[in-house]
Amino acid sequence: MSVLVGKDTKLLVQGMTGSAGAFHTRQARDYGTNVVAGVTPGKAGAKVEDLEDIPVFDTCAEAVAQTGANATVIYVPPPFAADAIMEAAATGIPLIITITEGIPVNDMVTAKALLASDYPDTVLVGPNCPGVITPDECKIGIMPGYIHNKGNVGVVSRSGTLTYEIVHQLGAVGLGQSTAIGIGGDPVKGLDFIDCIKLFNDDPETESIFMIGEIGGDSEERAASYIKENVKKPVAAFIAGKTAPPGKRMGHAGAIISGGKGTAAAKIAALEAAGIAVAPSPAEMGTTLKNLL
Amino acid sequence: MKIHEYQGKELFRRYGVPVPFGIAAMSVEEAKAAVPKVQKESGSNVVVVKAQIHAGGRGKGGGVKVCKNTADAEKAIDSIFGMQLVTHQTGPAGKKVQRLLVEQGLDIQHEYYLGITLDRASGRVTVMASTEGGMEIEEVAAKSPEKIIKEQITPAVGWQDFQARNLGFALGLDGKQVRALSTFLRSLTRCYTEMDCSLLEINPLVTTGDGRVLALDSKINFDDNATYRHPELSDWRDLSEEDPAEVEAKKFSLSYINLDGTIGCMVNGAGLAMSTMDIIKHYGGEPANFLDVGGGATAEKVTAAFKIITRDPNVKAIFVNIFGGIMKCDTIADGVITAVKEVGLEVPLVVRLEGTNVEMGKKLLAESGLKIAAAADMADGAKKVVELAK
Question: What is the pTM assigned to this prediction?
Answer without folding.
Answer: 0.92
